[in-house]
Amino acid sequence: MISFINADLELDRQPILTDINLTIDRGELVYIVGKSGSGKSTLLKALYMDIKPRRGEVSIAGYSSSTTKRRHIAHLRRKLGIVFQDFRLLHDRSVYDNLAFVLKVTNTRQSLIRDSVMQALEEVGLAHAARQMPLNLSGGEQQRVAIARALVREPVAILADEPTGNLDPDTSLEILEYLKKINQKGIVVVIATHDYELVRHHPARTLQISGDTIRETTFSNSPAGYRPLP
Q1: Which of 8, 166, 209, 211 has a CA-to-CA distance to 127 between 20 and 30 Å?
Q2: pLDDT at residue 123, rounded to an integer
Q3: Residue 97's closest CA among 138, 122, 134, 124?
Q4: Which positions, given as ranges, span the membrane (predicted)?
């Protein structure tokens, strides 16, 4: 489903991660943890091909960084749901229209749009807010709209970049519960976060970025927090 093979990643010509080798299988929920600025977002950018590796290969959902043409990247992104820390909703459109817009630009039949939008909003408990404007909602509700927007195209994977970074602890746990429910439908969910407490409360497979490398880790209740697997 997802693989990095001997991949070197850089951003603005600055080396970020070196010789990355990892595989994420269909149906997995995976945390990418590390300090702010460690390269978590860079890793996700490589997955939705906002950047390509300087060396090696990144592949997701049948698309490879070494063979995918620029004109085909939009087709890949239609198979992915991407959730950002700052929501990135259209403030001049209602909640319903934020989701409907995603389907309209991919030429979804009008007869299917309403049912798809309302189903996605139902999954995050916001069907009642369909006609609200985003700025009238709380931060947690706006992030749930962003998750619904990611879900509305029935993606094979959701990539969440610090999805709880602007939220209080209780709301963060609520957002994580929605992402876990989506994962239980068989959708891959990759969550980049520096919130170790969140991961401690809801453990799953965890990959930690340290320096320019990434490796499997296990959570420890010791003050050190995480320790790499041998």
Answers
A1: 166
A2: 96
A3: 134
A4: none
Cα 165 to Cα 162: distance, rounded to the nearest angstrom: 5
Q: Counting Cβ atoms within 10 Å, is residue 179 exposed (0-12), middle (13-18) or buried (19+)?
A: buried
Under 8 Å between Cβ of 54 and 9: yes
Phi, psi (degrees; rounded to nearest 5) at 70: -55, -35
The answer as to whether 39 is a domain residue is no
**Contact between residue 146 and residue 84 where contact means Cβ atoms under 8 Å apart:** yes
Residue 140 covered by a domain: yes
Q: Which domain holds residue 120?
A: 90-154
In-domain check, residue 69: no
Rounded to a whole number, what is the distance in angstroms from the first to the last CA of the chain?
Answer: 25
Give the per-residue pLDDT at 230.
43
Interval 20-57: pLDDT, tens: 999 999 999 999 999 988 999 999 999 999 999 999 99
